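Would you mind giving me a polypeptide sequence along with per-residue structure tokens?
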Amino acid sequence: MAGVLNFTSPPLLRPLSARRLSNRRISIIRSSAELPETPLASTTLKTKDEEVSKLGFSSSTQTFSPPPNFKPPQPKRFSVRPDKVFDILGASLALLFRFGTGVFVSGYSASLVPKNEIPSDQYALEIAGYKLKETSNLGPRPEKPIEIYEFEGCPFCRKVREIVSVLDLDVLYYPCPQNGPNFRPKAIQMGGKKQFPYMVDPNTGVSMYESDDIIKYLVAKYGDGNVPFLLSLGLLTTLTAGFAMIGRMGKGSSYTPSKLPPKPLEIWAYEPSPFCKVVREAVVELELPHILHSCARGSLKRQVLYQKTGHFQVPYLEDPNTGVKMFESAEIVEYLRSTYAI
């Protein structure tokens, strides 16, 4: 039996044709090579410490280690720790206000197939003796991660994070919480404005502000050129992105004093997940730079994580500064605060 049940993205999530980038003024600041005092401009790095410093990470010899007696928890699917129920419920409101934007990657489709059609070493959701076969249609892949300066409690930033999820991009996020001493001043120095999000594409040298222009640039460069309908509604999109934060008002916006790690963390996550959201709030407040491996439904990176761990569940944290690798959002937040908060 081939597809017993076929599924494609709901009409509201389907793309609306975008105008060519040339039809709208895009706030391109300048290419990274034209910014003499910023990390992206440097082409004459001479030492490892200089390179680390230029990237905005700590170049000190300080070492980091897990909390005493730390042991990563075992993953528990679809489980919420009792003391975190209200956190997850509040974070889940975003799914309602944004109609699930970012849950599926571009060109997503799925069908239920007999269990034996998908090998056991391949990731697939199992439903009543069948497996869900998922496919997608993604655009060109950037060689280097896109770099974005932003913070969690910002509706304009959320819009950009949603398109990152739809396009299945890996992004190096530089958190810019209020009063953050590192990346907020750096972004202002680079772009000349106190405005977020601010995107730098090291693959093309393009830097820009304005969430709608960033979205159009990303879909033109790494997608099919079409902006998803729910990200194309102008003010309405921004308003609903703001309403999406009601359940977690103020979280992920203000700086918590912390120690800056020498290497960025790596987080496997995707924007609409409430479990991923509470972890993102913590890394932003602690101003911890991180590479986010986006893995919404239909992402090939689900299989990559499945092969790495023998299990798929997000969020998943890899900390190269301590060697810790772990699942479970509540424990990840506690680990981050114990390791990096001052």
About this structure: DSSP finds nine helices and 14 strands in the chain. The longest helix spans residues 85-97. The chain has a mean pLDDT of 86.
